[in-house]
Every structure is written in C-alpha cells, then in structure tokens.
Amino acid sequence: MLSTFIIALREGLEASLIVGILIAYLVKTDRRHHLRALWTGVAVAILASLAFGAFLSYTSTELSPRGEELFAGTTSFIAVAFVTWMVFWMKRTARGLRAELQTKAEVAITAGPLALALAAFFAVAREGLETSLFLYTNFKTVGAVSTATLGLILGLALAVGLGIGIYKSAIRIDLGKFFTYSGIALIIIAAGVLSYGIHEFQEFGLLPGTEAFVWDITSWMPKESFIAGLLAGMVGFDTTTSWLQLFAWLTYAGLTLSAYLKPAKTVKAPVSA
What residue intervals traverse the membrane (predicted)? Predict the structure, then answer.
C-alpha cells in the first residue's frame, strides 16, 4: 500500500503541477478560450494511461504461466529504466520546467487549438504511461491487490488536492525537498522491482541461480503474509531471495542513489578584471 501511495503521489503531483503551470499561463495571458483544448489533451492522456494499464493487466492474465514470467520480468526491467530516467530528468529540469512548458504552450497556441491539445497530451501522457507501467510491476511485487489499490487511490487523491492547493496558492510546500525525498523512495522501490524482474527471469530459465538462496524464511514468514507483502512492495524483499537478486538490488540502489544525491556541479562566473 505504501509503495503504490508514494508512486501515485509523486507521479500525480508532477502531472498536476504540469497542468497547473499550463492553466496559469493561459489565464495570465488572457487566453482562457484555449482551456478547452488544454483539458481535452489532458483527458485523452489520462484515458491513454488507463488503457495502457488495462492492456498490461489483460495481457498478463491471458498468457501462459511461462509467458507471464517472461512478460513480468521484461516489463519490470523496462519500468526500472523509465523510472530511473524520470527521477534524473526531474532533478535536471525542475528549475526550468515552468519556462519550458510556457514556451511550448506559446508555440502551440500560434499553431492552433489542436497543437495545444497535443502539447498538453504529451506533457501529461509521459507521466501517466510511466506511472501505469511502474504501478503494474509494483502490483506484481506486492501481491495484495486490495491494499495496493487503496494506496493508489489515496496517493492520486492527495496529489490532485496538493496540485489544486499549490495552483491557488493555498498550500506552500518545498517542492525541491519533496521531489528529492520522493526520488530516493522511488529508487528504493525500483530496486525491488528490479529484484522481482530477476526472479521472474530466473524462474523462466534466462538467468542462473534459481535455487541459490541467500535466505529462505517462508517457514515462519509466508509470502502471503501482510509483513512480507509490505516489505516486497517497498524494498522488493522476498522470503526466498537469491544471491543474484541481492547483488542486483545492492548494486542498483548503491550506484543510483550515489549518482542521484551527488551535488550538481556549479559553474563559476568569470572573474572580471
């Protein structure tokens, strides 16, 4: 539940801020008549994200057990790649995101309502499709669908509420710290998704070490237990964890967190004579 809540909150707030920036720009420049095109693009992006999530779930259920292992492992690796790219992209472009979106909106407005709808669509769809993919893989690691769904709903609801509050200047939060800490949490969750993908590939036979366990504690902590499900969703903990899973988890988390938390290089201004 907690992992899906964090994913939904982080991604949902990013999408809410993007929409809020675009709306504020149209209102500020007295172009309210373009809001319909903007909301059309946002609505289509949300529907596309939901359809993508439904496609992933449907495909997974229609496959054979062997095919489902391969599909789950492949989507896990793709999700980890996308999320890793996303957290570093946000860290790099967060300060200039407003100016970038306003520039794209200005160009789109000159081209017509359809161009503005497409600009809004691609801005929101990027977040939505990534969220659908990452949530699908995280749902597979958690196992408990009911609690994970509750976390998803609560996270999205809070993200929308925060987005509206920030837009209306009713809520003030340190977005820099929020995205930094939530980025750390996403990297830890992604490490767990990576571990799950390796497990699926081991079960399929593409990776070795299926029975080479670091620990096997299923005798006193069943996989279906609440604690095991909570740890699985948060950090990718498995009651039967192989050496390859543990090595991949530690390597990814260590290298990615060290690069993510590394201070940005500051460019020194030239000293005037």
Answer: 6-26, 38-58, 70-88, 108-125, 145-166, 178-198, 243-261
